[in-house]
């Protein structure tokens, strides 16, 4: 390479680049004049709605990006996408995902505008009211469900979240955390391709801005989609060059960016995405031509359409100033922003007067919405043209006759599994050496085979190391590729990329036919997947309020967990990971699993899956060790773990005291080293193990008290290989907490070395446990 030039040769790409303005006329879609006229009018109404929403919340939301993306979205809704306005939950239709969750104002404005156009032109096409987003529902923009203002209550307005969630019809994902929506959308595309087959798959359309593409997890998501050749994915980039703090986010031509030195087209193309450039994203002719070209010229790769736009276009405030701000309440600037709407349609928006209180503001807000309604009713030709587009969308969808492939995975068979019917492959004999990660792999393998491949796994370059590769051993080898290896059950999510992995697998689960499973060191994956896990839990909760309350889970496999990964040192052998997840989500949303015995994996995993939380997080260890003979040590059977907390042994009399254990390392040492010595000394104790705090929480209060009486918590000490706050629930006395053993007891991170030596350094090995118990209870 010549180091004195600014030019670098590109390796060949499967993708292609197209400037929509440079295509030959015969290859370019030209919309008819009636459609263009209708869209121009609808966009005037849409921009007025965005201004109205910001004004009357009041002064909340993101008008800039909502406005700059408006023509992209309206073209998708009224012309490009194949979907059914009457059936928001229809599985075979195209989906529009707002990865740019801060454009929620635009989503609500577009949804309400669409609903109103159909109400005026073709009311029989509307679904039940519960599945609509009506003009009246805009009264609920950024309102809490407990709001009591007069019109909100009178019109049964929906409370519309500040960023999108599936509580809104046609929305599948909760988005807003930067970059997560892109990864989750890739997961939806993967699930759709695997359900229907690539040739018949619904198209996943994704809206994002260049600022939302700057997080690293987006580059990882782009790599995931291109490597898997998900050509059922189309990204629409609203490139307005403005974020909260910058008006030059990206490099553009020779001008460097403030944040990144690529343009959205370059980022997508280097990741092997087709790119369609739209120089003027406010020109409906260019926008429609680009979307039509992308729909009819698919190759093996996903496609990005990059529209150059202006944030806050024609709003009166442009650029970064319009990101999360706008005109003052009912100011001259607000009415100026709506002037084109008023002039074109001869409509006058209500001017606010009188005392500024909640109900008065809401009354003026609703009067403005009624003015919009009246405008649409008076422009029947516009409504008919755009409603015709929606009828055509349904007709196209019906004509494609998309149906799941013949051997589509049967995820329901996983949920119907029984905890007390462990298959032979998941039952391990006393003395057999196996790591917990290996036992989990066997469980997932059996479930995957049973369901015909409903489990798809990913890993941070650790498939074999974490034993996750076992889930795919009944399926074609290699990594998933929609075009060349669609039978594989292992997908690469950008390499060593735990956070994007979580986003992709959450989207995969959201589609409803799969369970995503991702693995990495617990030290990393618990923290990096916390954000996608939280958004998935929010989305699944919101879905339950509208459609099916059963959540669609994905698994965060926190592998190589705890001090027994000691050779990797304190950067990897992390006791803190559990505290990030355990009891840190609303009840029923997250279930953590902390087994100590390989034979606990089947009942625990199946019990968790049957509860259908949004997320399941098993903590599994790396070293292979002999399975304990439970009958020899006179301890409870492994199946008892399904209650979350269970008595390994109960005192036969009044008892000398109570010990609560959590973690494979400490429990194994206690059973094999400490318990025999306690028996020899005739020290009669209650010994509990915490296999899942959340499974315990799902029991009734009376059952919880029966299993683990409060009196035992008051007298107990704990021994854990996680952090001490994870013990506070089970150890309630100050004295018990002071005596509890945990990895940070000595006030420092542990050193490196063999797992048993690290347990010894921490003071949680068998010898240290016995000493602490005797000091406390003998």
- Beta content comes to 5-15%
**Rg from alpha-carbon coordinates:** 29 Å
Uncertain segments? none
What is the terminal separation in angstroms? Answer: 76 Å
Question: What's this model, at a glance?
Answer:
By secondary structure, this protein is an alpha/beta fold. Helix content is 39%, strand content 11%. The protein has a six-stranded parallel beta sheet, sandwiched between helices. Strands 8-9-10-12-11 form a five-stranded parallel beta sheet, sandwiched between helices. Strands 14-16-15-17 form a four-stranded mixed beta sheet.
Characterize the structure shown.
The N and C termini lie far apart (76 Å). The chain has 27 helices and 17 strands. The radius of gyration is 29 Å and the shape is elongated. With 778 residues, it is an alpha/beta fold. The strands form 4 sheets. The chain has a 6-stranded parallel β-sheet, sandwiched between helices. Strands 8-9-10-12-11 form a 5-stranded parallel β-sheet, sandwiched between helices. Helix content is 39%, strand content 11%.
């Amino acid at each position: 390479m010549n180091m004195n030039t600014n030019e670098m040769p590109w390796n060949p790409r499967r993708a292609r680049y197209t400037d929509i303005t440079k295509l030959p006329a015969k290859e370019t879609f030209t919309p008819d004049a009636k459609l263009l006229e209708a869209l121009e009018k609808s966009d005037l109404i849409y921009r007025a709605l965005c201004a109205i929403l910001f004004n009357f919340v009041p002064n909340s939301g993101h008008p800039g990006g909502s406005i700059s993306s408006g023509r992209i979205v309206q073209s998708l809704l009224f012309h490009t996408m194949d979907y059914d306005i009457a059936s928001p939950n229809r599985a075979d239709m195209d989906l529009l995902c707002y990865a740019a969750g801060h454009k929620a104002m635009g989503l609500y404005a577009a949804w309400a505008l669409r609903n109103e156009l159909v109400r005026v032109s073709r009311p029989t096409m509307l679904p039940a009211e519960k599945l609509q987003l009506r003009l009246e529902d805009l009264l609920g923009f950024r309102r809490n469900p407990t709001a009591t203002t007069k019109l909100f209550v009178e019109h049964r307005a929906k409370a519309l979240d500040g960023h999108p969630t599936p509580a809104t019809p046609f929305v599948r994902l909760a988005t807003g955390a930067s970059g997560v929506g892109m990864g989750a959308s890739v997961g939806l595309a993967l699930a759709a391709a695997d359900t229907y087959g690539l040739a018949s798959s619904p198209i996943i359309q994704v809206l994002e801005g260049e600022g939302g593409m700057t997080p690293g997890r987006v580059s990882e998501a782009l790599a995931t989609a291109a490597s898997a050749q998900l050509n059922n994915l189309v990204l629409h980039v609203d490139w307005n060059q403005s974020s909260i703090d910058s008006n030059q986010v990206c490099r553009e031509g020779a001008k460097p960016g403030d944040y990144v030195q690529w343009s959205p087209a370059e980022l997508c193309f280097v990741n092997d995405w087709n790119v369609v450039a739209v120089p003027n994203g406010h020109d409906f002719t260019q926008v429609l031509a680009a979307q039509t070209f992308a729909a009819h010229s698919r190759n093996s790769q996903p496609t990005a359409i990059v529209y150059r736009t202006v944030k806050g276009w024609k709003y009166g405030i442009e650029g970064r100033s319009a990101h999360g701000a706008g005109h003052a309440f009912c100011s001259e600037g607000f009415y100026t922003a709506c002037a084109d709407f008023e002039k074109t349609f001869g409509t006058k928006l209500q001017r606010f007067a009188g005392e500024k209180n909640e109900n008065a503001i809401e009354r003026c807000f609703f009067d403005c919405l009624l003015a919009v309604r009246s405008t649409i009713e008076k422009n029947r030709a516009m409504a008919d043209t755009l409603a015709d587009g929606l009828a055509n969308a349904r007709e196209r969808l019906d004509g494609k006759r998309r149906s799941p492939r013949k051997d589509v995975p049967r995820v329901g068979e996983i949920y119907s599994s029984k905890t007390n019917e462990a298959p032979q492959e998941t039952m391990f004999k006393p003395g057999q050496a196996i790591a917990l990660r290996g036992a989990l792999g066997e469980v997932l393998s059996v479930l995957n085979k049973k369901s015909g491949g409903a489990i798809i796994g990913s890993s941070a370059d650790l498939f074999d190391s974490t034993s996750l590769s076992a889930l795919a051993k009944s399926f074609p080898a290699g990594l998933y590729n929609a075009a060349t290896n669609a039978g594989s059950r292992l997908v690469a999510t950008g390499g060593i990329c735990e956070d994007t992995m979580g986003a992709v697998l959450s989207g995969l689960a959201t589609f409803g036919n799969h369970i995503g499973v991702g693995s990495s060191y617990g030290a990393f994956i618990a923290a990096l997947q916390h954000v996608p896990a939280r958004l998935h839990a929010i989305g699944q909760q919101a879905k339950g309020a509208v459609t099916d309350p059963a959540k669609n889970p994905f698994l965060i496999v926190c592998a190589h967990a705890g001090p027994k990964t000691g050779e990797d040192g304190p950067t990897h052998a992390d006791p803190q990971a559990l505290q990030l997840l355990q009891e840190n989500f609303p009840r029923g949303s997250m279930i953590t699993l902390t087994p100590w015995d390989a034979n606990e994996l089947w009942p625990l995993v199946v019990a968790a899956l049957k509860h259908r939380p949004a997320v399941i997080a098993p903590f599994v260890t790396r070293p292979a060790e002999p399975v304990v003979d439970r009958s020899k040590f006179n301890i409870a059977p492994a199946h008892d773990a399904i209650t979350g907390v269970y008595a390994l042994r109960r005192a036969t009399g009044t008892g000398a005291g109570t010990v609560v254990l959590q973690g494979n390392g400490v429990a194994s040492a206690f059973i094999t080293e400490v318990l025999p010595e306690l028996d020899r000394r005739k020290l009669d104790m209650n010994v509990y193990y915490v296999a899942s705090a959340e499974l315990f929480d799902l029991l009734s209060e009376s059952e919880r008290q029966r299993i683990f009486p409060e009196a035992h918590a008051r007298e107990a000490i704990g021994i854990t290989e996680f952090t001490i706050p994870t013990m506070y629930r089970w150890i309630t006395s100050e004295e018990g907490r002071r005596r509890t053993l945990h990895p940070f007891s000595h006030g420092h991170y542990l050193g490196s070395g063999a797992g048993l030596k690290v347990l010894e350094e921490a003071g949680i090995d068998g010898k240290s446990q016995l000493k602490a118990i005797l000091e406390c209870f003998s």
